[in-house]
Design goal:
140 residues, mainly alpha, 64% helix, elongated
């Protein structure tokens, strides 16, 4: 189904531009499309629309800032937005609106048992076992 919509969109774009070349589709455009989908939400059309409106709106706002426009810092802003979305909103804005909420990254905690009397790993006479296994393989 998504390939069908992509084909329709490509044909409409070709009709509008009247010429298509590989140079028309840059790395920035790919990052922009990826940001739209991930920020909005991967599994829903509503998420894709939300992400599109947010990214295009953010791009228009950043385009008015001369420093960002002159140094082409859109990619850095979109990259940071992607990282933050993946960390805190794994289901995108659509997931937030659906009630799945924010996810705070958890730190892995090292749990040590203070009552432990034995070490976690214990090796006893490993050399003898290796010798006995190799001797068993050599035996007819």
């Amino acid at each position: 189904l998504s390939a069908f919509y992509a084909g329709i969109a490509g044909s409409l774009y070709a009709h509008l531009i009247r010429f298509i070349s590989p140079e028309s589709f840059t790395l920035f455009l790919s990052i922009e499309f990826l940001a739209m989908i991930v920020v909005g939400g991967l599994a829903t059309i509503r998420g894709a629309l939300l992400g599109t409106f947010l990214i295009i709106g953010l791009q228009e706002v950043l385009n008015r800032v001369a420093f960002v426009r002159e140094n082409n810092l859109f990619i850095i802003v979109f990259g940071a937005l992607l990282v933050l979305t993946i960390m805190f909103l794994p289901h995108g804005l659509a997931g937030l609106l659906a009630g799945q909420g924010l996810r705070w990254p958890r730190r892995a905690a090292l749990q040590v048992d203070p009552d432990a009397t034995r070490p976690a790993l214990e090796i006893e006479d490993a050399g003898a076992r290796v010798r006995s296994q190799s001797a068993a393989k050599e035996a007819p």
